[in-house]
Amino acid sequence: MVTHASAQMTAGRLPLVVGNWKMNGTRVTSVELLAALRSAGPFDAEVSVCCPFPYLVDVALSLQGSGIAWGAQDCSQHEPGAYTGEVAASMLAEFGCRHVIVGHSERRTHHAESDTLVADKARQALAHGLTPIVCVGETRAERDAGSTEAVVKRQMSAVIHALGHCVSQIVVAYEPIWAIGTGLTATPQQAQALHAVLRAQLAAASTRAGEMRLLYGGSVNAANAAELFAQVDIDGALVGGASLKEADFSAICRAASHAALGSTGKSRT
Ligand code: PGA
Known about the structure:
Layout: H1 2-11, E1 16-20, H2 27-40, E2 46-50, H3 56-63, E3 69-72, H4 89-94, E4 99-102, H5 105-110, H6 115-127, E5 131-136, H7 140-144, H8 148-163, E6 171-174, H9 188-203, E7 214-217, H10 225-229, E8 236-239, H11 246-261
Parallel strand pairs: 1-2, 1-8, 2-3, 3-4, 4-5, 5-6, 6-7, 7-8
Helix pairs in contact: 2-3, 2-11, 6-8, 8-9
The structure holds 2-phosphoglycolic acid.
């Protein structure tokens, strides 16, 4: 709910829950899902839905005036021009997008997106008034080899290098790749440890790191959300599979709302 949301903003970091629909649904099921989500709200946390590009108009029409934001799952690093198949950040802004996910592990893996490309996309999003949700995270093999911190810091440092102190305007999503869509979640303690590492890294680049939202992603569901949100440096979630089921996604949004209402003790800097 907007009034509560703004009040919480001043008290601390307002929790943010972002649905990442990936390449799922149809035009009809998308509109049905959003109608149900709209009736389940309003929420006291910030909620956003990142849909496939062709559904943006329907999503905007469905969510207008609901207090729920929307966004996309990728954008080009370029200004509009001869880039067949790409979608410019300026185009997403025309459709009222607030957020755009960049550097999701599925794009890093299936589309060979590099750390610098991801950083360029984040810069482009900011240039057009969108908030990039920058994803970072390690593979199972990297975790087993003990290189989780090094990998995640390397991914983050490319973004810090590209954005400088403006990095405070992004949202970061820590998503261990082995936890995405697998039903395996990092324990709240594992996730918190990485979030603390990231916040310390961001603090070296920006005095506003304490105000930044760091989301956890990877098999977040109605049962595990509250414990994750209770962690001091976890400010919400990027949700894949569970965002396709209204009851599950609403339950996660309500868990974030509870965290928001109790967040005066979490105005953590
Ligand atoms: P999941 O996906 O919630 O289905 O694990 C999260 C994501 O990929 O952002």
